[in-house]
Amino acid sequence: MKIIRHPSKGKLQRPVVALGTFDGVHLGHRRVIEAAVSYAKKIGAHSAAITFDPHPQEVIAPARGLKLLTTLAEREALLADLGIDSVIVSRFTSQLRKLSYRQYVERYLVKKLGVRAVFVGYDYALGKGRSGTAAALKKLGEEFGFEVKVIPPVKVRGQIVKSGLIRELLLKGDFKLAYTLLGHPYRLTGKVVKGKGIGAKILATPTANLKPDPRKLIPAAGVYGGFTGGRKCAVNIGLQPTFGHNSQLVEAHLLNFNGRLLGRTLALDLFSRLRPERRFASVAQLKVQIKKDIARLRGM
Question: Does residue 208 contact residue 252 with C-beta atoms inside 8 Å?
Fold first, then answer.
């Protein structure tokens, strides 16, 4: 798979593109991308996913403090898993947000990419004021000679799969449903930094302290089961209330691992929330619970 940033004219030959920000690359996004990939293969064309960085909401409404389900690198990796030929990263700027949907389509999709077909979700909108609905995009497709395929919503348990809903679920601790709607583990990527040594010195359970991207959404406090590099890990997210700390930490204990991780970049793929964060009356009680958490993780 190729990563293309700021594509120049003629870089791709009449590609089939899936258009969206695709934060989270959840089940709804996957339906759009997989449809584009399938159609491209059917007609012998190049398939590409267009994503935006930064997220448009970070430019349009920075005061909202939007937290991302995926960093750009995480998003690219997830898109690659779907068999797309290229990921086109388009920088979202204040200038870009001022373009009408017609200007965007003509300048980028038609003149730069020469798209053959465009796949979008049912609720996709582009251009200034989000006036470029799927219906408007279809009309421009007829004018400029490209097909537009609109993919209907994906529903799980009666709810439409959306990035906003997944953010809400992760923040309130409903990890099981969030995991289902994503269709893949929730990844936290970051550099391992020096901690206070509580895990190794006091709890006899050494941990790697992760420093995630500050724009990344961190799930609700608790203990999670995850994988990193094919190895299971117990991931604690929270304030370490038993020790009276007041800053959020993300720390991982890798099962059956004795090596050094300081300075390395780890990707933690969370697949289960084992329990919420608790304050224990003593360190001894916390040690007992940690053993139970690890034993449960081993059996999963």
Answer: yes
pLDDT in tens, 51-103: 999 999 999 999 999 999 999 999 999 999 999 999 999 889 888 889 999 99
Residue 179: CB atoms within 10 A of its CB come to: 19
For the chain, the structural domain boundaries read: 2-159, 185-298
Using CA atoms, how far apart are residues 59 and 90, in angstroms rounded to an integer? 13
Rounded alpha-carbon distances, angstroms, from residue 299 to 17, 77, 79, 167, 199: 42, 28, 31, 28, 22
Of 182, 296, 178, 277, nearest in space to 223 by CA: 277
pTM equals: 0.91
Superfamily of domain 185-298: Riboflavin kinase-like (2.40.30.30)
Is the CATH number 3.40.50.620 carried by domain 2-159? yes
Cα 87–chain centre separation: 15
CA distance linking residue 150 with residue 251, whole number of Å? 42
Q: How many CB atoms lie under 10 A from the CB of residue 16?
A: 28
Task: Please enumerate in sequence order all residues whose Cβ is within 8 A of that of 141, keeping only pairs 6 or more positions apart, or say none.
Answer: 118, 147, 148
What is the per-residue pLDDT across 205-255, written as a single tens digit (0 to 9) for each? 678 899 999 999 999 999 999 999 999 999 999 876 655 566 788 999 999
